[in-house]
Amino acid sequence: RNLRVGAVKMLAPTLVVFSLVATSALADRNDFVTGYGFTKIMTNCFGDENYYGFLRQIAEAGRWCQQEPVHIPEVKVHTNKDYYVKTVVPGVPAIHYPQVAAHSHPHTYNTPITYHQVPYAAVKPKHHEPIITAADVSGLIEVTKARVSNLTCTLRKLGEIDDYLNINIQTDVNRILALPYISYSLRHDLIQGVQQCDALTKCLPLEYSDSVVPPPAIKRILAYLKCEKKNRLISCMKEDLKRHIYDIDISPIKELHPHETDDQTIERALFVLYGAETDSFELK
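Structure for Secreted protein, as requested:
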C-alpha cells in the first residue's frame, strides 16, 4: 500500500505539490511563498497574459480607490432572535436535563483528583501600562476602516458589487466566458464554482448573528471571495490533472466506479490526491 502511494507521488509530483499549495493557500496565510505559488498555479491554468491582466485590473482599481476618502457603507442589521429554532424534547422541561442513573454503566472509572483553584477574580493584577495603548487601538481602527473601504471601493470599481454591497456574479461569469484558450470543461467548472459560491453566501444567516463586526454584508462578501478563490483553485488543479492523467494509473478508481464518465473519474482522482495530503479530516 505504501509503495503504491509512493509510486503515485513519483508519477505526478506536480499534482502533489498543487495539493500541498492548496492546503496552505486556503489557510489564510499571506506570506510571499504562498502567494507566489498560488500565482504560478493561476498562470499555468489561464496563461500569463490573462491572469496578470486580471491582476493589473485589480491593482489599477485599488490605486484609484486609495485616492478616495474612506467610506464604510451603512447596512441594516436584523435583530429577529426568533429566527433560531429552539429544540425541546417532548415531556422534558427545557431548563432541565434528563437524570442519569447512578449505576447505569457497567464499567468503573477512576475518580479524578480535585485540587483548590484560586478564583480568577481574586487575583488582582498589578497596575502597569497597557501593551497596546489607546493610540495604537485608534490607529488600528483607522487602518481597518481604510482596508474595508478600499475593498468595497475596488469591488464596486470592478463591477463585482453594487452600491448596496450586493454581489454581482455576472461580472465573474462574463470574465470567464471571455477567457481565450481554455477548455470547455474548465470554463464550465469555473462558472459552476461561481454559481455555487453565490448560492452558498445567500444561504448564510449572517443578519441574525450576535456578532457586530464586520457587518453581515461585508461577511458575505468575504465568504464569497474565499469560496470563489478555493473553487477556482480546485478547477485549475482538476484541469492540470487532466493534462497529466496518463502519468497516473487510475484503474483502481475505474474498477470501483466503472460507469462514471472520464470527468467524474478525474474528480475522484483529484480527491484522492488531495485527501491523502490535507488535514481537513483531522479533528483538532
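Residues 2-79+135-275 form one domain.
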